[in-house]
Amino acid sequence: MAVTTGSSAAAAQVAPMASIEWTGEGLRILDQRRVPDERRFVDLGSVDAVIDAIATLAVRGANVLGTAGAFGYVLGVRAGLDPDEVAARVIGARPTAVNLRVAVGLAHDARRRGEDPLDVALALLAEDRDACAAIGELGRVELAGASRILTHCNTGVLATTGRGTALGIVYAKAAAGEPVEVLATETRPLRQGARLTVWELQEAGVPVTLIIDAAAAAALTAGLVDAVVVGADRIAANGDTANKIGTLALAIAAQHAGVPFYVAATWNAIDAGTPSGAAIPIEQRAAGEVIGSGEGAPSADTSVWNPAFDVTPASLIAGIVTERGVLHAPFGPAIAELAR
Ligand code: MRU
């Protein structure tokens, strides 16, 4: 594993901000566990290294997980490993984001047809960039007039290979010269909001205010938010949406406050084979992420329930912004229509 490190300021001058990049020999990722303290690029030269990066959230966010997984598959088959086993292992690295299964499946299918799976991975990288741009523009129009956006987790440059999904809409508003400011939830326990969303918005010059997760309902009822916009790890055929734990609480609070709750996701997050949210597998993560360490940490043997995602029922969702169009209820027929 090769590593390039540098302070954020120094690295910013030499490296474009890209969540992942194919070097010709392997996958270079920005290690998101270190952001914002360090901009550290890591070269992953094997499928095992990619799986480890996915499982430990060095690379994370549904879209970039998918693309990284496809490159991981390429590395595995190039090393002569059994392609079925490689695909199953990469897909198993994180169970909720369907993008991972879709992307690895596409690479695996291409190889079975005798094509180079690397072409698939490279195409996914470019398609994600274009899809994010389309979502940004469609969302900007759909959410015209909403300038105070509350978002959860991280759905931007770090989570995609473009400008992001939910944050892509924020960036599109900013690029169009429209007023926009973000209320970013901290996103316990791994603090993707505090560490990643705040950092990338600050880098982009978009006004951002950090709140603890527990302050979101108060912000919504206090009238501080025009719209909630979040990403998705999997959208069932009826519109039920799995996203970072805490999203459901935001949707319930938004409904109570009369604030529209939107999901922004690329089409490959829609899983037509999963009828409703009840069938979406929810990743359970280690207790240590919640317990933490050091002063004030509960004892290491404390019983913990740590689901990484929850499911928001379609009934709480005002719209789903995809690159193919904006979906409104009833989502089942709307999804089926755009799938054609
Ligand atoms: O556990 P993470 O950090 O991978 O969770 C990420 C999210 O929940 C995002 O909202 C989702 O993947 C969409 S990213 C475009």
UniProtKB/TrEMBL annotation:
Pfam families: IF-2B. GO terms for biological process: L-methionine salvage from methylthioadenosine. It catalyses: 5-(methylsulfanyl)-alpha-D-ribose 1-phosphate = 5-(methylsulfanyl)-D-ribulose 1-phosphate. Keywords: Isomerase. One of its GO terms (molecular function) is S-methyl-5-thioribose-1-phosphate isomerase activity. It comes from the Bacteria. InterPro entries: IF-2B-related, IF-M1Pi, IF_2B-like_C, Initiation_fac_2B_a/b/d, M1Pi_N, NagB/RpiA_transferase-like. PANTHER family: METHYLTHIORIBOSE-1-PHOSPHATE ISOMERASE. Belongs to the eIF-2B alpha/beta/delta subunits family. This is Methylthioribose-1-phosphate isomerase. It comes from Amnibacterium kyonggiense.
